[in-house]
């Protein structure tokens, strides 16, 4: 059963390896660590690699719009680049 748990810093220090193993196995959904009654850290299990890749790749999808009929293979500039003439800056 997945659950969220809270530990004091002292408890976490004594049980940290077990807690981290349970997080990695997705047996815990969230671990809150407190010190003197205040939350100092929140731990969550890592995402599975497939989800992480999906978030990383394609995160800008849909943010660029090209006009209908736009040819992505056609040249964009009508004039030659100055670098073609051996001049790095115009």
Tags for this model:
single chain; 3-stranded mixed β-sheet; alpha+beta; 27% helix; 90 residues; YefM-like fold; 22% strand; 2 helices
List the helices and strands and how they pair.
Layout: E1 3-8, H1 9-24, E2 28-35, E3 38-43, H2 49-56
Summarize the structure in words:
There is one protein chain. The protein has a domain of 45 residues: 3-Layer(aba) Sandwich (YefM-like fold), CATH 3.40.1620. The chain is α+β, with helices and mostly antiparallel strands and 90 residues long. It has two helices and three strands, in the order βαββα. Helices cover 27% and strands 22% of the residues. The protein has a three-stranded mixed β-sheet, covered by helices on one side.
Q: Distance between the terminal alpha carbons, to the nearest Å?
A: 66 Å
Q: What is the oligomer described by this structure?
A: single chain
Low-confidence stretches: none
Q: From the helix content, strand content and strand pairing, which structural class follows?
A: alpha+beta
CATH level-4 homologous superfamily of the domain at 1-45: YefM-like domain
CATH topology group of the domain at 1-45: YefM-like fold
Mean pLDDT: 84
Task: Choose one word for the global shape.
Answer: elongated
Strand order of the largest sheet: 1-2-3
Order of helices and strands: EHEEH
Helix count? 2
Main sheet characteristics: 3 strands, mixed
Task: Provide the gyration radius in Å.
Answer: 26 Å
How much strand content do the residues show? Answer: 15-25%
Structure summary, number of beta strands: 3
Helix content: 25-40%
Question: From the coordinates shown, what is the CATH architecture of the domain at 1-45?
Answer: 3-Layer(aba) Sandwich
- The first-level CATH class of the domain at 1-45 is given as Alpha Beta
